[in-house]
Amino acid sequence: MPGRKQYRINPSTLMYEVHKDKSWAARIRRIAAVIGVVALGCLYFWLYTSVFHLELPKTAILRKKNLAWQEQMSIMQREMEVCEESLEAIENRDDGVYRAIFGLNKIPKEVRNAGFGGVNRYEALEQLGSGTLLKSVTQRMDVLMKRTAVQSESLDQIYVLSSQAGDMVSCLPAVPPILPEKGTFRLSSSFGGRSDPLYGGWRFHEGIDLASKKGNPVYATGDGVVEKAHFQYYGYGNEIVIDHGYGYKTRYAHLNSILVAEGAQVHRGDQIGELGNSGKSTGPHLHYEVIYKGNKVNPINYFDVDMPTQEYKAMIEKRQEESEFNKRTTTSDVIRRVTQ
Length: 340
What we know:
Blueprint: E1 7-10, E2 15-18, H1 23-51, H2 57-101, H3 109-112, H4 123-126, H5 133-165, H6 168-171, E3 185-189, E4 192-195, E5 202-205, E6 208-212, E7 217-219, E8 224-231, E9 238-245, E10 248-258, E11 265-266, E12 271-275, E13 285-292, E14 295-297, H7 309-322, H8 331-339
Antiparallel strand pairs: 1-2, 3-6, 4-5, 6-13, 7-12, 8-9, 8-11, 9-10, 10-12, 10-13, 13-14
């Protein structure tokens, strides 16, 4: 007990004497005991982790939580990949179809894929390391949200234009220029590069050639105004160009005869000429072009070559009932009517 004296026998005098314990020796023993415990703990830790490659309980729990978090991030990335693919398909259709129909320019990719400028939104994440998975997923999500917002604004713009367009759909060159009855025509030359049939050598064919019987009717593929109706000995021969508005024009070349005059307003399904072999041509066919904003585009993308024949005939009959336009049968008759 504290303050109580301890007595020990002195072997020399055979008497009990007060025992004085040296304090520094006691401290050394206590320090040695502490060092021994710490050393034993370190040895145990080293054997547990380095020799036997075992994990501490807390480390194992944190590792499991980290694996679960990474798995969630991976699932989120796969879901974003699906969303990005779907959004990309919508964007392509928007640029190639919806915006093109209404005469709007494509949205540049740098606008669609732009991130967020200004203040560094990822400063806190950068402290975890520039290549962290969380930062990568966050940036990807932000770009996806921005692309979605841009696409939403584009669709809103198209919606406004569509509500104001009125009869714009009827102006698009959306049907074949001849009766699509199987066995009566063939696609003799497609859009793109080909060997010139007269002079040889590689040339870009700016439209399609539909070979058929000379004299077969040729119809306007959309509402518009005849911009050009003339004959040239070489080149296109008897040629008609119709301005449909909204950036679209169509050309009908190598005709046998022209049944419209420049300035005349025509409608889809009106007969405008007869298929022929005029100009630079090797046989009866119709050279048909679609021109959008001054650029030649593939006409096949604008109509269904397998359009039902009865549906096409019904369109023609309806136009004949609505207008006296198709009663004009010759070029001279058209000129006479215009000059009267």
